[in-house]
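A note from the maintainers: we've had questions about how concatenated examples are separated. There is no special marker in the raw files; a new sequence line simply starts the next protein. For clarity in this README we add a label.
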Amino acid sequence: MQLLQYEGPAAAASGNTALAALSGSLASDLAEQFVNAQFSQAQETAADSYAFDLLTQLGLERKGLVTGFQKLASQGGGAGLALLGSHPPSEQRARNMQTRLNRGQ
């Protein structure tokens, strides 16, 4: 079994158009995944803030947001390549909520 090796622009220069097209496709797929992940992470961060604000408005305890994200983090939630993940890392989410609690918001 032969594995494809990324050759980037050199593939096009060498006349291997099939390999050049594949490498271009892989690069565009990776770029699309990155953009979508960043958009999704921004939405998740906004949802976290919404939850915090709603709990505040209702006069309910917000510490559960921190401990929930800490528990996810301890179980590997949000681990992996953060730049390509659909959710921000759980440790970061816990820190964000703790920062808001510390500010008394």
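[label: protein 2]
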Amino acid sequence: MAKIYFTLEEAQGYVNWLEEEFGAIQSLQNKINELDEKIQKVESGISLNGGGPISEQISKYSNERDDVFRLVEEKIDSIHQRGILVKSIEHALVDFPSILENREIYLCWHGGEDEILYWHEVDVGFSGRRPL
């Protein structure tokens, strides 16, 4: 896929959609955590019970967790397919490749920000953000 460069206006057009996508990803991550907890609880009971139906329960939870994980991957892929770089799922942090003064930079958005207010050089991370 060819590299996509965004104007500030184009990148800004994705902010509400990104809020929704990362909200959905967070809900899916919570579901994965719940399933992991269920698996751990059932696994801790195996030594007392000896297996059997408990192993089937673990398999069910594991399969469900894998399905939810695939949904998370699909959401992230959907973001990447638009040319947006996901830097942190946990913090809903993305970069939009852009051009400033004939060089590539990243317009930077962090979940909870109403609009894109920062940019940084491509070789600098979040800590190097500068106001637009």
